[in-house]
Amino acid sequence: MLVKTKAIVISSLRYQDKGLIVRCFTESDGLKSYFIRNAYSQGKSAQKIAYFQPLTILEIEANHKNKGTLETIKDVRLAIPFESANTDILKCTILMFVGEMLHNSIREEEANTDFYAYLEAALLWLDTHDQTSNFHLILMMETTKFLGFYPDIDQLKAEFFDLSAGTFTNYQSVSCLSSEETNLLRRLIGVKFGGSQNIFSANERQQLLKILIDYYTLHIDGFRKPKSLEVLKEVFA
């Protein structure tokens, strides 16, 4: 079936000499994997490799056989070219980390237009704003809404947060954050991209990043800590 859709590049992997395997989160069909036969060829087709950088927003025309195998792309172009996200070193680092995090998190092979719309809007916000030091934390927290384990905030003022249960509680167990860590997470909940980027210190961002990585690890089978985590920590130290 020939499909025209927007797609956000999640990851790409070189295959043999000239090929590329690309995972995209598509607006029409959720997560899809594509084989780009001549991504590294000389000539006109060589331009293709530039399209498949992490979190690039594309418009593609693709053949979807929906048989669990690699699909093919007939035509591709940039849907919304980035202005600064691919050239600013801080934003490039954020994109590298977020791309890895999404690669290790998204398993949906069906349409989720709300999630797609959120990711696209978030990436465009990153591209057009200068103060972005909380971006990765906010995106990780908001993404849990779409992945199904956003914290239950019915008892938001309780002293502890149970990472395993995803709830706030007054009874501390082995899977609970400390009171200080719980307060830090509570402060993050509800923070939006347009809010002040100075609400957390560098040390608090590091703590929150660890908390969120631990939270994802508990709630997503096989979740792997992104390799770019240490680079991100250095950039925002």
H and E string = EEEHEEHHHEEHHH
- Tell how many strands the DSSP assignment holds: 7
Please work out how many helical segments DSSP would assign. Answer: 7
Using the CA coordinates, give the radius of gyration.
Answer: 19 Å
Kindly name the structural category.
alpha+beta
Largest sheet: 5 strands, antiparallel
Q: How helical, in percent, are the residues?
A: 25-40%
Return the average pLDDT rounded to an integer.
90
Q: Measure the end-to-end span.
A: 48 Å
Strand order of the largest sheet: 3-2-1-4-5
Description of the structure:
The chain has 237 residues and is an alpha+beta fold. Helix content is 35%, strand content 21%. It is built from 7 helices and 7 strands; from the N terminus they run βββαββαααββααα. The strands form 2 sheets. It has a 5-stranded antiparallel sheet with strand order 3-2-1-4-5. A hairpin with a 3-residue loop joins strand 1 and strand 2. The longest helix is centred in the last third of the chain and has 18 residues. It is globular. The termini are far apart.
Features:
237 residues; alpha+beta; five-stranded antiparallel sheet; two-stranded antiparallel ribbon; globular
Question: Could you write a compact summary of the structure shown?
Answer:
With 237 residues, the protein is of the alpha+beta class. The protein has helices at 48-51, 89-103, 113-128, 135-147, 179-188, 202-219, 229-235; strands at 2-15, 19-26, 30-36, 57-63, 72-78, 160-162, 167-169.
